[in-house]
Specification:
Length: 667
Amino acid sequence: MYKVIVFAGTTEGYEISRFLSENQLPVLACVATEYGSKSLQENSCLHVQAGRLDEQQMRDLFFREKPELVLDATHPYAAEVTQNIRKACEETGVSYTRILRTGSEQQNAVYVRDAKEAAEYLEGTEGNVLLTTGSKELAVFTSVSDYNKRLFARVLSLPSVIESCQALGFEGRNLIAMQGPFSKELNQAMLEQYQCKYLVTKDSGKAGGFLEKIQAAEALGVMAVIIGRPLAEEGLSLKECRHMLIERYGLKKEQNVTLLGIGMGSIGTLTLEGREAVRSADLIVGARRMVDAVRLPGQDFLYEYRSREIAAYLAEHPEYTKVVVALSGDVGFYSGAKKLVELLGPETKMICGISSVVYFMSKIGLSWDDAKIVSAHGKTCNLISLIRENRKVFAILGTNDGVRNLAEKLTFYGMGDVILHVGENLSYDNEKILSKQAKELVSYEGDPLSVICAYNLKAEPEPATHGLSDEEFIRGKAPMTKAEVRTVSLAKLKLSKDAVCYDIGAGTGSVSVEMALRASEGEVYAIEKKEDALALLAQNKKKFALDHMYIIPGTAPEALEELPVPTHAFIGGSSGNMKEIVELLIKKNPQVRIVINCITLETVGEALGCIRELAKQEGCECENEIVQLCVSRSKNIGRYHMMMGENPIYIITVQMLKTSEEVEEQA
């Protein structure tokens, strides 16, 4: 006995039969021919019965097997068969459900009212077309651009017909004169021979060979353009039927989700493994460009790129058993795959694709193993400093003005001769690749879908540690933290690459510059109130090409109010506002790491006093350390070296310790 009997013979019928058997529900699949039975493989839960049944034979089958449910997944144009199945179910009291093909776009078919509308539709497409509507309305299709190259007309083999077709411009290989009837196999052979992507036919029913045309188109994934209205039926789509079965029988809601790197976007950069994943999927998810690049006619799709929304949608729609999430390039290269795996679980499959760096660098003939690879798409990556330090930098941009802005900044920082290799719309028909000096691209307006490779022959790698010599900086009368003090102070700060730093009382900017060189992926804010020092700050920023160093005129703490939350702060001068400055820093970030340079004992006492008071107010312990640094420099006196002492400096390091509750929350 079978719980479900499926009248198959269509893709939908085969899929629902497999779905039931995979979920251990006994199912009998009825197909009309032996050919149809080859599409299903029998197992302990799935049996296949080949042969056409009339209404009486269907009744006998239902009485004998006593199924709980009959699913009618026969072809939309097999109206008589559907009528017989429905009657047999009514007479035997068996529950009946019709499985429908969804709208025209979903079933790899477009319905149009007449030949004129068909021609209008074809005008907006690309690819060859097989016309099977006869010669009477052939003139309408001459409105399609390049019709005498794209369109292949199949007409009767009568001299008068051939003559009229030739007069319209259909001749040679674009005119097929043959007498029907045409089998599915012959239709399929013609579509393959002429490499057609579209088949135009009238809804002529069985006598007109309509079914054979549709079957041939379906077998090859060719879009059918049907002149005539689709049949109006009531029932469930394939996905709705799966959902109904899950709810009715309490089936396990398993989904096989594949995260697929689709390459650049054109079908040519999709791997064979990726194509197979797409072919077998019943839902394609992703951003519009990615979905449209890979989805096949007949597949459901969801335009969505946000990870949480994708995970929520899949949880709400268990009827989709094979899901492909299409991601640009490769799943491991600045991809949303990482977040999706966290949400969907480790069983999620990933299929790699061709990344933009691999594709583009091969196009411009450069290796990428020694390139600095970053993405500036929606994030800060400090391209200017990277290009200054690295001979080759590959970056994903993602905005129309990305190339122009980069070229302007490079030119401003004295690197206008850097070669910018620009790639836009990679792999598409409108792909564009150009190579020019940055100074030649300061007015360039490009495409947001772009990447660059900056090639800088004058690149100078920065030292691995802080400690630039004082002579490296442009200096004036403004005070400057000397190299030895700067080195120890920065070591105490323990900067991270993505640190957000304040340099309060920046002076000439020696600490700001070294902060920015170390925090290459972060931000540095140099706060200074004196005009002459501000000018020096700007000069040193430009000299070291530190685009992520921001000069803030004003006095602390007021000048700090609107700045981003700091992770690190250096106080070289407080103008008597030490308590207020430290208080604001801790208010912005209770765990901010602060290093203070003091020259006088009074300043040390003031700093320590306000730190103790704030720690008491915050109700937490405070890490604090005082280092006295005495530096002597040699001075040549004849053939002797005399050591000359600098003023001693007190270096205070402060950081509030996290409470046990905060540690527990973060854990």
